[in-house]
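Box 3.1 A note on notation
Throughout this textbook, protein chains are presented in two layers. The first layer is the amino acid sequence; the second is a token string describing backbone geometry. Keep the layers aligned when reading.
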Amino acid sequence: MFVKPYLKQNRTTGERYTTYKLVEGYRIHGQVTHRIIVSFGRLDELETDEQKKLLGKRVEQLIINGGNTLSTSDADEKIEQLARYFFEEVRRKKRYDINQCKAEWETVNMSTLKNKDAREIGAEWLCKQAVDQLDICNFLRQSGWEEDQINLAVTHIISRAVYPASELKTVSFIKESSAISEITGFDKEKVTKDKLYGISHKLYQIKDPLEQYLSRQTNELFDLEDKIILYDLTNTYFEGRMVGSRIAKFGRSKEKRSDARLVVLAVVINREGFLKYSNIYQGNMADCKTLEGIINALSRQTSFSGRKPIVVIDAGIATDDNLLMLKNKGYDYMCVSRSSLKAYYADTTATPVQITDKRKQPIDLLKVRADGDSDQYLWVKSQAKKMKEDSMNGLLSQRFEQGIQGIQEGISKKGGTKKLNKVYERIGRFKQKYPSVHTWYDITVCDDGNGTATSISCRHKTGESDISQSGIYFLRTSIMELDEHAFWSIYNSIREIEYTFRVLKTDLDLRPVYHKTDEASMAHLNLGILAYWLVATIRYQLKQKGINSDWREIVRRMNTQKCVTTSVVNIKQETISVRQCTEPTKEVKAIYDILNYKYAPFTRKKSVVPPAEILKNNSS
């Protein structure tokens, strides 16, 4: 293509002038002829022939590349504006078969480039795709929820998963820091703490059917059979007084908060970490009294195909009455024996099986039977546990001996406790304080025959058998055909429920509870459990591919992906604004790829504001 001049004459005035056209040469029947692509007119704006040639080259460049190229010549801004104008004429009049490329090119003023409204989107988008994978929105839709309610509920659940905080702080997070509203479609300006409270209560009203639905959904998604279920309880404390509450009671706090009222959360999960059932109890509920109610509820809500699952529980729940109840209902069980066996035996040909823990410390395992007991036991000797117990027992023994020495000093000094009955009371209190070590000592009190103690001796029992039992404990099960490795593996799945509680109480902010009413407190706990469904769904799939990072680390990595608006002024003085997500890092891409999730919720959102509208906005 080249610029061809055409001489013209004005018939009225007789003026002679030149017009320019961009033409393309081609050969037909052996003759070279020219095809007009676009008429440039007189080009009075361009003073030199060289500028006119540059204009022709620039228009040709745009035509060949579909307009999607930046100028690589020395053409000035005036030539670029004319080239863009004539290119649009060619495209509008269809004078040339222009390649329609998806890319968009603009000539812009780089000094006007701005980035604004940067928000976190990586963790939110990860959780939103987990919500879609579980099809939670469809369940709420079938339950009669309106779209606005569904979007708000999803916004609140995801916010709890990635930024666990009070409703007031969550509102600030949604409005100021997160792009969650752009993902869920709920207008962030409409979010208030009262709406968040309201949607939490509404979610709690459908707790049981939603929990059953998610239990079935995860089993179908990941082809799980629930052969093993784990049951345990934890508690969390209230920061308020909670006077008149039905559920907030004083009890034994796992956080040592004896000054605060408690609420108990009981959960049943499968071996993969997915919840099967949860319930909320009063804070003074004993662990062992909850099992039968949970098993009955689980039997009503869950249909187990074939054999019922193995129930794994800890020693605090494994009373003889509870184990008998499980047997009567057809459940096998596994637990830590509540007491150390005194009389037990193994097969004469059996030898301990040695394995190692995560820290490469040796653990010896041996199947044994107890006299008069139909259950199977596993004798476990852990070197790490022995070292810990020996260390603790050494410290406790030292403190016990110092306490007895203090009683002796009270007998010998003026004004000290010398009455025989008072001395025995002090010794009794020390025995109560150190129940695991006082049995290793013989304590003798001498008196004058008149009810006054004269001296006290404390002698360590040498060769005491209990000392050699440190590091040894027993697992108990109703299943007889397990070998040592299977026995140990099944019981250690209880570590998953410990991780579940750690995520719920720490990562998802169930501890402490600041709400002032029972209804708000239970809705708060339920919201954390719903957020845990997203955590479990994501972590299960990552663990299958060898990524064992905890939830906080996953959120930290995902938060490196942001959503940002970039604005710039182009050659037409239009302000172009583009809203898009940053490119995910290598680690974030790996997470998306393992989960088979998309990298971003949208490619980009573009808007163009004409100069007139900019002036209007500025003047207003």
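The mean pLDDT is 87. Residues 383-412 form the longest helix (30 residues).
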